[in-house]
C-alpha cells in the first residue's frame, strides 16, 4: 500500500465523498478532506480536514499543497429550472478553480466527477455511451449545462498539461448517505409511507460503492483524458417503490401519474414545498430527468476497469440497513431478507 500518497477530496462531506474517503483509507491512502461547512460524514475518520471553497482559488491552493491526487466531487445538484447562476459559480467556475489549483500545485492526477446529465439524452432510442455529445450551454437545464461546461474546463486543463480523467455516474444511491441526498430522502419517504403518489418514468440507478470503486480504478489505471460512464440498472419509479415495499413492508403508493399530468402539476408541487420549507420531489426538471435515456452503456468501464455494478435490490437493502442503524427512520423497519 502507498501509505504516503496524499489524496485530496473536494465535497468530502457529500454522499459520494463519504464513501470515497472510506475506500481510499482502506487502500492505505493519506486523505485530506476539503470541507465547506458540514463535517459529519468524515468527523470520525482518520483524515486531515481543511475548510475551503471551490469558489476561492487561494483556499484550493492551500488544500492541494503536496497532493498527488485530487478527486473533485464538490458541486451544486439542482432540480430547478432557474438556478443557472448558482450552478455556474460552483459547477463551472469552481471546476475552473480546481483545475487551476491542480496545475499550480503540481497535482499528479485529477479525477473529475461529472454526471450522466452532462450528455444530450436524445435520441432516446439509441444507446448512450461516452461518445454522446455534451449538452450545449443554456440549451438544457441549468444543472445539465453546468456539468457539461465543467467537463470542458477539465478538457482545457488537459490541454495545458493536466493529467485528468472524467467520471459520469448515473443516479446514485447507497449507504453512508448522511445528508441524506435528494434520492436518499426519496427512499426514506417511501419507507415512511410519505409518498402519496408515483410518477411514470425512471432512472438508471447505481450503487455509490460501485461508482467509487470505478473512480479509484480509473485514477489508478486510465490514461490521461479518459472518460467513463458508470451506470447501473434502469428501473421505473414504480419498480423502485415495489422493491422498497418488499424490503421494508411499507406499502408502495398505488397511484401512478402519467408524465404529462405530472408536468402540469409540478409548479404547484414546487410552490407548496416552498411554503412548507421542504425540497419538492417532483419538479419540472426532475420530471424531465425521468424521461431521460434508459439505454446507458458502461461497456468501456467494464472493459478497461473491470467495472460490474451490483444488483439494484442489494443496493436498496444495504441503504435501508444503513439508514436504520444510523437513526434516519422514526420507527424501526423490519428489513426482509435479501
Describe this structure in words.
By secondary structure, this protein is α/β, with parallel strands linked by helices. 42% of the residues lie in helices and 15% in strands. It has a domain at 6-179 and 204-235 and 294-311: NAD(P)-binding Rossmann-like Domain (Rossmann fold, 3-Layer(aba) Sandwich). Strands 3-2-1-4-5-6-10 form a 7-stranded parallel β-sheet, with helices on both faces. Helix 3 (84-105) packs parallel to helix 4 (142-159). The protein is globular, with a radius of gyration of 19 Å.
Layout: helices, strands, pairs:
Elements: E1 6-10, H1 15-26, E2 30-35, E3 48-51, H2 57-63, E4 69-72, H3 84-105, E5 109-113, H4 142-159, E6 164-169, E7 171-173, H5 182-192, E8 198-199, E9 202-207, H6 208-221, E10 227-230, E11 233-236, H7 237-248, E12 256-257, H8 259-276, H9 284-290, H10 299-305, H11 312-325
Parallel strand pairs: 1-2, 1-4, 2-3, 4-5, 5-6, 6-10, 7-9, 8-12
Antiparallel strand pairs: 9-11
Helix pairs in contact: 1-6, 2-3, 3-4, 7-11
Amino acid at each position: 500500500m502507498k501509505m504516503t500518497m496524499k489524496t485530496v477530496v473536494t465535497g468530502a462531506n457529500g454522499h459520494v465523498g463519504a464513501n470515497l474517503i472510506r475506500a481510499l483509507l482502506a487502500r492505505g491512502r493519506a486523505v485530506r478532506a476539503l470541507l465547506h461547512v458540514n463535517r459529519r460524514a468524515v468527523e470520525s475518520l482518520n483524515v486531515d480536514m481543511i475548510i475551503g471553497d471551490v469558489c476561492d482559488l487561494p483556499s484550493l491552493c492551500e488544500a492541494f499543497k503536496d497532493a498527488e491526487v485530487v478527486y473533485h466531487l464538490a458541486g451544486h445538484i439542482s432540480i430547478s429550472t432557474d438556478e443557472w447562476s448558482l450552478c455556474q459559480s460552483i459547477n463551472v467556475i469552481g471546476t475552473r478553480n480546481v483545475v487551476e489549483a491542480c496545475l499550480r500545485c503540481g497535482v499528479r492526477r485529477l479525477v473529475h466527477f461529472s454526471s450522466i446529465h452532462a450528455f444530450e439524452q436524445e435520441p432516446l432510442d439509441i444507446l448512450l455511451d461516452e461518445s454522446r455529445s455534451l449538452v450545449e450551454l443554456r440549451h438544457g437545464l441549468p444543472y445539465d449545462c453546468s456539468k457539461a461546461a465543467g467537463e470542458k474546463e477539465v478538457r482545457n486543463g488537459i490541454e495545458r498539461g493536466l493529467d485528468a480523467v472524467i467520471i459520469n455516474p448515473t443516479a446514485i444511491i447507497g449507504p453512508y448517505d448522511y445528508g441524506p441526498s435528494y434520492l436518499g430522502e426519496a427512499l426514506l419517504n417511501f419507507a415512511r409511507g410519505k409518498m402519496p403518489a408515483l410518477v411514470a418514468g425512471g432512472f438508471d440507478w447505481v450503487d455509490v460503492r460501485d461508482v467509487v470503486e470505478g473512480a479509484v480504478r480509473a485514477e489508478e489505471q486510465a490514461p490521461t483524458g479518459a472518460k467513463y460512464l458508470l451506470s447501473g440498472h434502469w428501473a421505473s419509479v414504480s419498480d423502485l417503490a415495489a422493491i422498497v415495499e418488499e424490503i421494508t413492508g411499507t406499502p408502495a403508493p398505488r397511484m401512478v401519474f402519467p408524465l404529462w399530468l405530472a408536468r402540469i402539476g409540478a409548479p404547484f408541487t414546487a410552490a407548496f414545498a416552498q411554503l412548507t420549507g421542504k425540497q419538492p420531489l417532483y419538479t419540472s426538471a426532475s420530471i424531465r430527468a425521468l424521461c431521460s435515456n434508459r439505454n446507458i452503456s458502461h461497456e468501456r468501464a467494464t472493459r478497461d476497469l473491470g467495472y460490474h455494478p451490483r444488483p439494484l435490490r442489494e443496493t436498496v437493502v444495504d441503504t435501508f440497513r444503513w439508514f436504520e442503524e444510523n437513526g434516519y427512520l422514526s420507527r424501526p423497519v423490519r428489513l426482509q431478507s435479501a
